[in-house]
Amino acid sequence: MTVPTPESLGGGGTNRATAARPVGEIVFACVILSLGIVGFVAGADIRTPPSASDIGPRAFPFLVSGLLVVIGIGLIFQLLRGHVGVAEEGEDVDPSIKTDWLTVVKLVGFVIVHIVLIVPLGWPVAAAVLFFGAAWSLGAKPWWRNALTGIALALILQFVFAGLLGVSLPAGFLLEGVAIFNG
Amino acid sequence: MDNFINLMNGFSVAMQPMYLLYALGGVFIGTAIGVLPGIGPAMTIALLMPITYSLEPTAAIIVFAGIYYGGMYGGSTTSILLNTPGESASIVTALEGNKMAKAGRGAAALATAALGSFVAGTLATVLLSFLAPFVAEFAIQIGPVEYVALMLVAFLTVGALLGASVLRGLASLALGLFIALIGVDALTGQQRYTFGNPFLADGIDVVLVAVGLFAVGEAMYVASRLRHGPVKVIPVTGGWTTWMKKDDWKRSWKPWLRGTFIGFPIGTIPAGGADVATFLSYAAERRLANGANKKQFGKGAIEGVAGPESANNAAAAGVLVPLLTLGIPTTATAAMMLVAFQRYQIQPGPLLFETQGALVWTLIASLYVGNLMLLILNLPLVGIWVKILQIPRPYLYAGILVFAGLGAFSLNFTPVDVGILLVVGVLGFFMRRYGYPIAPMVVGLILGPIFENQLRRSLAISQGDPTALIASPIAATVYVSLIVIFALSYWMKRRQRVMESERVSEDDAVDERMAR
Predict the structure, then answer these.
(1) Residue pLDDT, tens place only, B168-182
(2) Which are the contacts of B142, defined by CB distance < 8 A and separation ≥ 6?
(3) A103 chain-B contacts, CB cut-off 8 A
(4) CA-CA distance, B32 to B346, in Å (whole number)?
(5) Contact B237, B107 (CB under 8 A)
């Protein structure tokens, strides 16, 4: 009759996984709490014009900050008493495997590379690099197909958005002379 | 009668060949993206917002009407055909639909879902056409005090009722309210939480937050626990004309109608939108079924697809009533629609029917048109949707990241926005991982500034006396009904839990028998 939980399916690493999770959750709850405290401190700096006839620009920020503080404390208490959150489910999410932090870090890294490349090399290059990097991080093989798909997607998007719809995406020095990629 | 003429005028605009093409495009793209696993209607609208940047308002509104219904519909194909037991159980359609598909009756499940969506969508749009102008007329008379009450209801239902954890829902809501505060105060022009940073002085764009939470956060979260290996789609056999047998029709038409009349009213009140409606419809069909049909529940009963799917679409139309007439979104999807409207300086609310009458009626007319197109498109094109479902997951989520980056960058053409997108995306990742719902944050972000504005106006009128907030009879009624809604939802959650445990124990019984 027992329903198999994700942990029991996962096998050996169960205890470590459940022991590690509340720490991360408590950190997140502390972030919420400290955001509320920052809200109060920074809220005191908001200047209230003396002529203001209503409750002024400070009251609502204080209300929201107070809400964050109360909820943050409440969450920390709940977590200490063992009530952990239920991670979101989805069609492509495998509940039986542990969080793969390395992939997340790789994705964040490639988005940062994308941001850095947009201005010097143009949007299509930056987009192709992001696609290639993300697909590789997620385990797509072989590398040359990832590269070709990324380049094709970037060029199609550049053509449709800059060329057809007139969104001014910078084409970059490689494609600057090609009319269909420029709005 | 005036409204009928207005609606006909709306049709005369929406039926122009150019706008019909826009509607077709919207419905097609909305369904195609809605079919992709993990992408709900709210994310579809957020991701597609850049596409409509360069369109004129009428065309954009028509495209969004198509995306709205198309995105709603696309999800049911996913849950019926994608072979991932367990996880999609939160979507009621999948309960029976997936079982039907596995038993080789996937075609019938898809057909009853498509026809039910059409019947419910059309009936609910008729109800919307009659109800919306009436509500708008009433809404013109209400003041800031009543608005504060209505928005509090929206906040609390979306924040506290919908998720599994009340505190996490409220935390998500408060985070949204906080981010909305960053920038310049609309009433006094004072900077708030900008820390002297010029990029923050303009506030953080709503689209950035929505795309970051829905697209980037989702991609990262799925990446962290990606199901590897080939994608298993349940094959659909037979031509689409022979999908529904006579018996299927006989068993479907009543659930379609019941689903409509369960879904529409629930959509119009801020009680959780489509999720609650589909659950209630499923419960009703299960109770009303008898004999052999009742035994089929849990193993692929067609009523369990026909009812909830109709309720889902009817609720989607119902949600448009408070959105268009009061400017209050009660679901994340409606909140994204509100943002889409605001991009074009269209402010939904009591005055919308007066100031933008032609546009609203065109929108409503294109809802009828879009619904019909969905029906025509969906059955013959199921082959395409199956292909889309089979996109290799690494490419799918890499593509989502590229598209999200495109949307963020094209807001102001500065890489800084993509950086903010990334930060919000990481936040969205942790929220998913730790069980915080996303929808309350988006609703808080969008309704927050409007709420503060109305709250301050109420208190200015009452000269700072907070009791004025509950003194108005309409506001008092709203607060009382809020209490009633909470009591009802508590009862419903308990019923849902009972039903789920029944279902699990039945499944176990089946498994045990199979094991022997």
Answers:
(1) 999 999 999 999 999
(2) B350, B474
(3) 223-224, 226
(4) 27
(5) yes
Q: Cβ of B480: how many Cβ atoms within 10 Å? A: 10
User: b or e along B244-253 (b: 16 or more beta carbons within 10 Å of the residue's beta carbon)?
Assistant: beeebeebbe
User: How long a stretch of residues is chain B?
Assistant: 516
Under 8 Å between Cβ of B27 and B72: no
CA-to-CA separations, B250 to B246, B293, B296, in angstroms, rounded:
6, 12, 16
CA–CA distances in Å: residue B201 to residues A59, B189, B196, B408, B415: 19, 11, 8, 18, 17
Q: Give the closest-approach CA distance of B284 to chain A in angstroms.
A: 26
Q: What is the pTM of this model?
A: 0.87
Burial class (CB in 10 A: 0-12, 13-18, 19+), B448: buried
| Contact check, Cβ <8 Å, A93/B222 | yes
What the block records as the tokens of B59 is: 């065309």
Report how far residue B260's alpha carbon sits from residue B307's, in angstroms, rounded to the nearest whole number. 8
DSSP reduced 3-state for B226: strand
Report whether pLDDT(B60) > 70: yes
Give the number of other Cβ atoms within 10 Å of residue B366's Cβ: 30
Least confident of A48-57, B78-87, B159-168, B429-438: B78-87
Interface-testing mutation among A80, A89, A92, A121, with chain B (most B C-beta atoms within 10 A): A92
Q: Is B183 left (phi over 0), alpha (psi -120 to 50) or beta?
A: left
Q: Taking a C-beta distance cutoff of 8 angstroms, is the pair B447, B151 a contact?
A: yes
Q: From CA A34, how far away is CA A23, in angstroms rounded?
A: 16
ipTM: 0.87
Q: How many residues does chain A have?
A: 183
The structure tokens 């409750």 sit at A55
The residue-averaged pLDDT of B386-406 equals: 90
Residues contacting residue B262 through CB under 8 Å, at least 6 positions apart: B277, B280, B281, B284, B307, B311, B314
Q: How far is CA A44 from CA A37, A60, B32, B449, in A?
A: 11, 12, 49, 19
The CA–CA distances, whole Å, from B347 to B35, B39, B234, B320, B344 equal 30, 27, 44, 14, 9
Residues of A in contact with B170 (CB under 8 A): 67, 71
Tell me the pLDDT tens digit for each residue of A52-109: 556 788 889 999 999 999 999 999 999 988 878 877 777 778 777 888 899 999 999 9
Contact B394 A135 (CB under 8 A): yes
Nearest CA in chain A to B466: A55
Phi, psi of B184 (to 5 degrees): -100, 130
Pairwise pLDDT comparison (B410 vs B494), residue with the higher score: B410
C-alpha to C-alpha distance for B307 and B509, rounded to whole angstroms = 26
Tokens of A30: 């502390």
Of the candidates B170, B168, B199, the one whose C-alpha atom is nearest the C-alpha of residue B183 is B199
How many other C-beta atoms can be found within 10 angstroms of the C-beta atom of residue B500? 12
- Structural tokens at position B382: 């199921």
Distance CA B373, CA B35 (A): 16
